[in-house]
Amino acid sequence: AVLEDATAAVRTVAYSPNGGQLAVGSWDNKVYVYETSNLATGATIAVLEDATDGVNTVAYSPNGGQLAIGSSENKVYVYETSNLATGATIAVLEDATAAVRTVAYSPNGGQLAVGSWDNKVYVYETSNLATGATIAVLEDA
Q1: 19: alpha, beta or left, given left = phi > 0 and alpha = psi -120 to 50?
Q2: Which alpha helices (DSSP H) does the chain contain, by range?
Q3: Is residue 140 very low, low, confident or very high in pLDDT (cuts 50, 70, 90)?
Q4: pLDDT surpassing 80 at residue 141
């Protein structure tokens, strides 16, 4: 299948851990989420439009319950994958002072690390994302 929804460069893609979803992040400020069993149709199950500057990175949590999106506007948007169609975030993380370049969940899903062009890594507890409080800021990155 050729997925052609993005109207600007595709910057990042990620499969959910069970392979059921494919998230495609674009510099058109959107993330297109597809159900992999229906890729041939090209139909999205959600288009996430919270970012206002290019999407640089996407990552699913190990259990597939969360999707994190890092953008050039210095923010990370976190969604519950069971609620993607609503487009509602469960958290917006705003500690980075430059573009977010990468996001990654720990293997057990308990932490979310955010790497930024500000030369820092911000670490959050996934059980406490709504507060936006970091548990660590690594400044030697």
Answers
A1: left
A2: none
A3: confident
A4: no
Structure-token pair, residue 122: 């911000």
End-to-end CA distance of the chain: 38
The torsion of the CA quartet 36, 46, 65, 121, rounded to 10 degrees, works out to 110
The DSSP secondary-structure symbol of 52 reads S
Q: Say if pTM beats, i.e. exceeds, 0.85.
A: yes
Largest CA distance in the chain: 46
Distance CA 2, CA 97 (A): 35
Q: What CA–CA distance (Å, rounded) separates 56 from 34?
A: 18
Rounded CA separation 62/49 (Å):
23
Tokens found for residue 42: 């090209």
64 token code pair: 């597939």
φ and ψ of 36, to 5 deg: -65, -25
- Residue 58: count other Cβ atoms within 10 Å of its Cβ: 22
How far is the C-alpha of 42 from the C-alpha of 1, rounded, in Å?
A: 7
